[in-house]
Amino acid sequence: MKDAPDTPRAGGHADALGTNQSGMRAQNERLVLTLIRRHGALAKSEIARLTGLSAQTVSVIMRALEDELLILRGEPQRGRVGQPSVPMTLNPRGAFFHGLKIGRRSVEMVLTDFLGTILARRARQYDYPDYEMVRAFALETANDLVGVLSAEERERVEGLGIAMPFEIWGWASMLGMAPEAMTPWKERDIQEELSEALALPVFLQNDATAACSAELVFGTPEQPSDFLHFYVAFFIGGGVVLDGRLFRGQTGNAGAVGSMPVPDKTGKMRQLIDLASLVTLEQRLRAQGFEASALWASSERWTLPDDIVTAWLEEAAEAIAHAVHGALAVLDFSTVKIDGWMPEDIRGDLTKRIDACLRRHDLTGLNMPDIQEGSIGPDARALGAASQPLLASFLVAYLR
Q1: What is the CATH number that goes with domain 25-90?
Q2: Each residue of 184-220: b (16+ CB within 10 Å) or e?
Q3: pTM for this structure?
């Protein structure tokens, strides 16, 4: 598979000044849409104040966005003097996006609206990601999911984002497969093939980075400007947000926390991926004679032996705490977010354990970050995939 091209960058900060020069309307439209997404309903006067654009320029932009069905007028709000202000909101049906999550144990496709609400989804479990099966699933499902849209709305499907592990072919032995079974992922280009078949722009991003993107774009409105994001799935991965933007790094693999060296219970240095991934829990279940498929069938509720889960949580929490400690020495993160493919109670337990473990570390010279639960959960990778065409066409300031 060829290297994934960078998702187009919009550039700039969401609250940065706009430009009144001609020929820049597309950039200013992105700026206005991003402001409304972040702040909620805004009147034209508020948008002019936040952007520095003239009232006339803002009026032109708002008319254009209304004509494109991207924003909606709210009820006029009357103040004490002057004309009533009219709040403008994003139109949920203004645009639609596909998000494809390709994992080691399952594949999932979602269709979202302009606000990130999942309108429809399909998923399939497997022992390993067979290339032809995944490709056929993506094509069939993309055409199927748009059935929930009207004929006119189908014209507003803006693209498909893919979230998948980079160099997925390198994990054949961990999946229990012969290396040649994964060779098509190395030799073919799923991004290009789906784009040609669907006649849509297709974007590709590392799955853990996509999960971080979902937290940034669709998570709680009051996001910290900088945070380190951990996503625990078959393998643990991560993402980095700096200055309110997703930092992907030169190769798109920034936040590859799974490769961080951390000590195990014996003090031996190992990679975080070996201690804090769900595959480790899967292996322990099977080693003790338990069925492990429940891990991947649903993330809502696991009926698993408490002692095995608790032992995994203890080891994973300490390992992640060591990874956080190391990251703090490089970047002064104020917040660390913990998310993953797991029930909410287990995610909460893991988050509390990480906080407790980190507080036992000697953080002299460093600041203790706020350890928080992520707000997206199991849908993070699919939603993060869907966020890619949204970012590419409509928003600014989320990418770096």
Answers
A1: 1.10.10.10
A2: bbeeebbbebbbeebebbbbbbbbbbbbbbbbbbbbe
A3: 0.88
